[in-house]
Task: inverse folding
């Protein structure tokens, strides 16, 4: 395996690993808050479920970018392209926007959604506000994914 191909595969791994790590941490933060809140009222699980799942989307975005990267370098079809060192770096950097944005936004989204769990615990009718606050953080993960996809679309290999 040449260095360019190694860097491209590393990019695919980094996008799913960092975004997935952020999602796992974010979900853990919300789930912990929800578990504590359900000791008071177990019937609220359904209301908390969406907030618990919300930070998981970044891991999905990282997986999508990883899949697109693997497809771009021909790994899926078994027709792997030969990449120069520069091309490998380009593919690696193509994955960084979603990797980094996914990591940090998922963790912070988990914190915001955990606060939303606390809000709903005290004021059950505030589900909409709790979701809107969580979705606002999501926007930056979407921007990271879009930048990675735009680079993917226009990166000639």
Result:
């Amino acid at each position: 395996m040449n260095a360019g191909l190694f860097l491209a595969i590393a990019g695919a791994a980094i996008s799913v690993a960092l975004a997935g790590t952020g999602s796992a941490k974010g979900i853990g933060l919300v789930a912990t808050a929800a578990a504590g809140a359900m000791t008071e009222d177990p019937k609220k699980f359904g209301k908390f479920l969406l907030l618990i799942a919300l930070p998981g989307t970044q891991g999905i975005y990282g997986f999508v970018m990883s899949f697109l990267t693997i497809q771009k370098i021909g790994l899926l079809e078994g027709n792997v392209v030969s990449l120069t060192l520069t091309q490998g770096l380009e593919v690696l950097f193509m994955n960084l926007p979603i990797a980094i944005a996914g990591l940090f936004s998922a963790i912070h989204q988990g914190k915001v959604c955990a606060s939303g769990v606390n809000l709903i615990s005290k004021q059950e009718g505030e589900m909409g506000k709790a979701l809107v606050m969580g979705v606002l953080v999501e926007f930056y993960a979407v921007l990271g994914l879009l930048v990675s996809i735009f680079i993917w679309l226009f990166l000639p290999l």
Notes: The mean pLDDT is 96. Residues 85-122 form the longest helix (38 residues).
